[in-house]
Amino acid sequence: MSWDDEIVVRDVTNAGLVVSDRINRDVAAQTDLEEALEASRYTSHPYSTHPREWPPLVEVMDTWELPAVLIERYNAAGGEGTALCGVFPEIRRAWASVDNSLFLWRFDKWDGQCPEYSGEEQAICAVGLAKSKPGVFVEAIQYLLVLATPVEGVCCCGRGDGTDPYEEVSLQLLPEYTIPSDGVTMTCITCTDKGRIFLAGRDGHIYEMHYTTGSGWNKRCRKVCLTGGLGSVISRWIVPHVLKFGAIDPIVEMVVDNERHILYVRTEDMKLQVFVLGPKGDGPLKKVAEEKNLINQKDAHYGGRQSTGSRPSNRSAKPSIICISPLSTLESKWLHLVAVLSDGRRMYLSTAPSSGNSGAVGGLSGFNNSHHKPNCLKVVTTRPSPPLGITGGLAFGALSLSSRTQNEDLALKVESAYYSAGALVLSDSSSPTMSSLLIVSRDSSTQSSASAGLGTTARTSRALRESVSSLPVEGRMLYVADVLPSLDIAATVQSLYSELEFSGFESSGESSEKASGKLLARGDLSTQHILPRRRIVVFSTMGMMEVVFNRPVDILRRLLESNSPRSLLEDFFNRFGAGEAAAMCLLLAAKIVHTENLISNIVSEKAAEAFEDPRVVGMPQLEGSSAISNTRTAAGGFSMGQVVQEAEPIFSGAHEGLCLCSSRLLLPVWELPFMVMKGGLVTISEDGIVACRLSSGPMQVLENKIRALEKFLRSRRNQRRGLYGCVAGLGDLTGSILYGTGSDLGAGDQSMVRNLFGAYTRSIETGDGRTSNKRQRLPYSPAELAAMEVRAMECIRQLLLRSAEALFLLQLLCQNHVTRLIQSFDINLRQELVQLTFHQLVCSEEGDRLATRLISSLMEYYTGPDGRGTVEDISARLREGCPSYYKESDYKFYLAVELLERAAVTSDDEEKENLAREAFNFLSKVPESADLRTVCKRFEDLRFYEAVVRLPLQKAQALDPAGDAFNEQLDAGIREHALAQLQQCYEIITSALRSLKGEASQREFGFPIRPAARSSLNQASRDKYIRQIVQLGVQSSDRVFHEYLYRTMIDLGLENELLEYGGPDLVPFLQNAGRESSQEVRAVSAVTSTRSREGLSGAPIPSKQTKYLDLLARYYVLKRQHVLAAHALLRLAERRSTDAGDVPTLEQRRHYLSNAALQAKNTSNSGGLIGSARGAFDDGLLDLLEGKLAVLRFQIKIKEDLEAIASRLESAQNESCSESNRNADTNFANTVREKARDLSLDLKSITQLYNEYAVPFELWEICLEMLYFANYSGDSDSSIARETWARLIDQALSKGGIAEACLVLKRVGSHIYPGEGVVLPLDLLCLHLEKAALERVASGVESVGDEDVARALLAACKGATEPVLNTYEQLLSNGAILPSPNLRLRFLRSVLVVLREWAMSVFAQRMGTSATGASLILGGTFSLGQTTVVNRGVRDKITNAANRYMTEVRRLALPQSQTEAVYRGFRELEESLISPSSFELY
Predict the structure, then answer these.
(1) 1226-1251 pLDDT, tens per residue?
(2) Phi and psi (nearest 5°) for 801?
(3) What distance in Å separates the CA atoms of residue 179 and residue 1029, rounded to the nearest whole number?
(4) What is the CA radius of gyration of the chain?
(5) Dist CA 1013 CA 999 (whole Å)
(6) Are 884 and 802 in contact (CB under 8 A)?
(7) What secondary structure letter does DSSP report for 709?
(8) b/e for 916-925, b at 16 or more Cβ within 10 A?
(9) Using CA atoms, how far apart are residues 8 and 4, in angstroms rounded to an integer?
(10) Is the confidence at residue 1096, as pLDDT, over 70?
């Protein structure tokens, strides 16, 4: 994948890692001043001089005479008046006072103006400049000039013209802002960045001038003594000249540390005091420390150890403190103040109780504790004074100053001093002829190769080494000040570096000019690309002069301009190192260094040639010779068992210089987010405002520098200069050397490069120094190493180009109000924006995605309904400024969006469709890069569903052309990622389906959906569009999408449309989704056993897949595939759910089985099977389904009976008096309920139902039905069936007596008759019931009719009298069974009933009526003609039986009164069958 032809993702990402590593190393190399001072104590000398042959390090840029009016006034005073002078760098003005007159003029350029202020009669004793407090004066008054006289203090305001803040300054007296001095002469005035004004008096006290707008009786200006007590009041007002409470020690200097909010005071007696101003600098003044004998103190931290290389101090005169200066946090976290002594030494002091170094290398442990509360003042270390007699012969590094010794009479005599951001200016008067300025600044040169060979350690590499320069000066130095950078440069620097923790901006509230000047403390090497040369202005008794500090790049420029000998250039590279020197060559060649004068083309070309010169930057090579020496043993023999470390390639200084230059350019933005929340919030809120961290100006400056550097590299590549020329020329032959690996080189190509660079092989020397005759070839040839370096530099060039384009994009967003552009983003996307770093924006896919999202919002702003232009307007800028973020495909995409905008507002349907189709054609060319989620919403609004379906499918094909989503041979993670990308495309189509169906779709981002376009549709239109989407989707060959579409349609309830328009892969999809087994599919062509199918059907099916199987069955029914439909329904009926909450009810299972049986009956109409095979399969399937349906009915009945039992038990619990009985009933009821629930879970076999449910709970009626259904014949004597009947009858008798038993017999018997005797044992039932009836009648328990049992037996046999009569005859013939005469008499009564029923049934059959109707006829008139219709054979049987049983009645040993009725009955029956007249008796 590539962003464009110039930029490759992989290369930019790799280069980003290199830049990140270089930035981290540069940050880690930043040394705290305390650590550097500690390390310098172990070097031979802490100072070095500048090479004499080089351009000077420090030089006088310009000199000015003092204004003539000032000289005249001073001369008029005779040199005896009070004269003061100073510089206000904030307003670019110098000042001087003579008695009561103050003169103010511009020091950086003479404009002919030198206004004089002489409003007071008293001589001016102190002058200060303060920032005006906001809200007190008008906005034009930015500074206050404070004048102090022995009588009063006066404020004057300064006004600017508003265009150039330094062009014109007018002074105006503020009479209402005047305070009396109360007899105290002020010695100095200092101000804070908060606008507070402090005055120091000769009485040793500190005063503050408070000023406000004033109201009522409140004074607008007043003076407050901050350090005085009762003694100071008495001394001033009662006896000011007589009574003194102590010696007065006047204050001579006050300085403010605006970062730490500390005020330092130096008195005339060299006493130092420390005052804190509160956490934010606006609190009350509080004294925390005071030290007097600091010069006599030894170094507290280092135990007073004398620094190496310092010369003996002059003991004839005690040194004094000349000046004090606060140290910025950028210089040190633990050193807070530097005091310069009269002998040139510097004392570094701290207000912290303990040092941050604590013996640890680096001293970085204190970085997080820089805002500690000051509570002391102590000397941490003392820096020796710089050497005298600077002649240029001093070598650098660890070498000694010179061979001569220094005497005490050569000690420095410092009259005044100035220290700022690592630079020290001393006014030395030790020479009797002329004063000189000693300027001490940090030496920026790196360790040379010669120094590295002298045993340089990590400690000495961090040591502070300073360069000393000397300038002769006429007169005495009175005042020194920094010339602050211009406002635009300062604003750029502060904007870029303000968020860096090590920049020193985060805790400073000073102006951008002062704050950016402090960045110089980081050293010239890391800031010379962004900061101009350092300049100071020196105010002396003879005039003023401007001194500039030449940076290393300025020295290199001068060397190249002056056509210096090549040896000087080589010396420069050796001193600074090839990498640093090459980086400076890049700054000059690309013209990105800040200079006062433009860099000429000649200098630029010479710098480019030096950058490409292998004699100074070196060649890529392998890491030393360790790869060879490691293969040798100590004795010189070759060790086969030793691990050989492969040598790593080391690139030349040109590559290192490019890395340094690139990392320093990108440092201010690289690891910081480019978006921030306004107000300093960390987390995003719904109403939070997100804005760019940098303004357009600084980003423009940075972009120009980066583009200039990239343009230079690209031009050298195109011109094939340096390694580019050799490697690119080789690439013309092989075609891959520039972007390939060294292995791509052919033998001829390697030979050619070897001739260019020389063969890179080394002889292996033996331990005794002799050269071996064998040569070992290293892993890479010179050509391969050169190609690797060129490729690495090309990657960095691409990174620079990508970074410049990112900056251009951010500027464009800022110019179009980025806050408004991202206002529509959701909270998660805004959170991603404020967390995304510039590094990620440039190098990551996530950054590219968010950039695309921002461009989308920008295009919406331009092309929306209230837009500001057309696609062509903004696209031209994007394609030119950031083509890797705004590609050709994006251009086509937004052209399509513009067409869709036009289509949305047109009312002509034909034009609307033409515009939509044109947009669709544009997007079809770039489907993989389009944001289809938003654009398809536009097509959906236009009802152009062809694009809604085809565009996402085209993008899915482009994202996964190889089909990785369903390639089982690939890793699961790759498949899941590919499938996730495809699903994002598919979701667009299914979202349109949801919208048409009426369900809420996911919230879309990007272009808004127009309410007018979302007009309501009638149901017919919705159905039409749904069918269109489904048909278009089914036409696709993407089977993964088909599955996604089918699932969505099922979820939306579009089953009918799915079954009607589904593709040929619908059946496999439903089978796989429902886990259809392959054995069931093959059942269409071969008859399988019932057992195997039954086992397959009972497989567990998850609840979410049941609907797929149900749809499959519906599909089979719709397509008249009855066999397959029956199998699918059977599986649904027998499924076991994995979810307890989704278990189908038994009624649902019965419904499935009933439908399955219906489909099996319709199989004969199917053309799937033919002939006898179809008939056999249909019969077997139908029998199977009907059998399962019958068993299911048993299960339903058992469940209902168990639930009824449980209900009865639960209702009977309240009536039970015994606690034990109640508990027993409860436990049993719970058991019954559990069994009933178990029956609801799945289908049970008939064996389970009989053994586990029916028998244990005495459901004998169902047991008998199951035995009959199963055609049970398990035992020869039918004991199980007979016993079951006996239990059933006993159960009925116990419940309701003979009446209940007869009802049960009628109900059960009629269900199972006709059947084998095994199932319906009439003898057992007859004997059991007759005996029970006799016993109950005899005992009086129940009144039983003579006909009840016999009629129950007849009903059980469905009216068949012969089986019942045979049963009675069999029992009556066995006297052992019926020994009791009463029992035999009862049997005979029942026989009489059976015979009568038999006669009536025969007559009814002949007459065509029922038995009841026959009885009515027989009870009326009966003619002889009617009797002829009675079957003679049946009549004879009945007559013989009646005659025989009459005889049996007579034989009973019972009284005639008991048997007479039975006897008469048999006789009358016999007579009725013989004599027609006898029928009237009935």
Answers:
(1) 888 888 888 888 888 888 888 888 88
(2) -65, -45
(3) 88
(4) 56
(5) 17
(6) yes
(7) H
(8) bebbbebbee
(9) 7
(10) no
Torsion of CA 1216, 1220, 1223, 1229, to 10 degrees: -70
Region label for 50, one of left (φ > 0), alpha (ψ between -120 and 50) or beta (otherwise): beta
The C-alpha angle with vertex 851 and arms to 845 and 857, in degrees rounded to 5, equals 145
What pTM, to 2 d.p., does this model score? 0.68
Tracing tokens 């202005």 back to the chain, one arrives at 537
Predicted confidence at residue 704, as pLDDT, reads 93
Give the HSE-up count for residue 1257: Cα atoms under 13 Å, Cβ half-sphere: 25
C-alpha 681/C-alpha 758 separation (Å) is: 60
Token code pair at residue 845:
């896919």
| One-letter identity of residue 439 | I
Distance CA 945, CA 949 (A): 6
Q: Using pLDDT thresholds of 50, 70 and 90, give the confidence band for residue 457.
A: low
d(CA 1120, CA 315): 121
Per-residue confidence at 753, pLDDT binned at 50, 70, 90?
Answer: very low
The DSSP bridge partners found for residue 159 are: 141, 170
Q: Give residue-wise pLDDT tens across range 1151-1192.
A: 888 888 888 888 765 554 444 445 545 568 888 888 888 888
3-state secondary structure of 80: coil
Tell me, what's the pLDDT at 553?
92
CA angle 448, 454, 455 (to 5 degrees): 110
Q: How far is CA 389 from CA 53, 396, 452, 898, in A?
A: 17, 16, 28, 77
Statement: residue 520 has pLDDT above 70: yes
User: Which of 351-360, 1025-1034, 1064-1073 is the least confident region?
Assistant: 351-360
Tokens describing residue 438: 């000693």
Of the ranges 267-271, 803-807, 951-955, 1475-1479, the best mean pLDDT one:
803-807
501, 502, 505, 508: CA torsion to nearest 10? 100
The torsion angles phi and psi of 733, rounded to 5 degrees, stand at: -90, -40
CA distance 1059 to 1307: 47
> What are the b/e assignments for 325-339, b being 16+ CB within 10 Å?
bbbbbbbbbbbbbbb
Measure the CA–CA gap between 1129 and 1151, rounded to whole angstroms.
Answer: 9
Burial call 1192-1223: b when 16+ CB within 10 Å, e when fewer: bbbbbbbbebbbebbeebeeeeeeeeeeeeee
Q: At what angle do helices 782-815 and 723-734 cross, to 10 degrees?
A: 100
C-alpha span between 1293 and 1302 (Å, rounded): 9
The pLDDT of residue 418 is: 93
The Cα–Cα gap between 1044 and 879 comes to 38
Distance (Å) of CA 999 to CA 996, 1005, 1006, 1026, 1057: 8, 18, 21, 13, 17
* C-beta of residue 340 within 8 angstroms of C-beta of residue 38: no
Most confident of 90-99, 452-461, 1218-1227, 1468-1477: 90-99
pLDDT computed for residue 685 by the predictor: 58
Q: What is the rounded average pLDDT for all residues in the chain?
A: 77
For residues 1423 and 1342, which has the higher predicted lDDT (pLDDT)? 1342
Q: Facing residues of 455 across strands?
A: none
**8 Å CB contact between 1132 and 1112:** no
Task: Identify the H or E element spanning 428.
Answer: strand 423-428
Q: What are phi and psi of 893, to 5 degrees?
A: -60, -45
* Cα–Cα nearest to 1398, from 1446, 1430, 1370: 1430
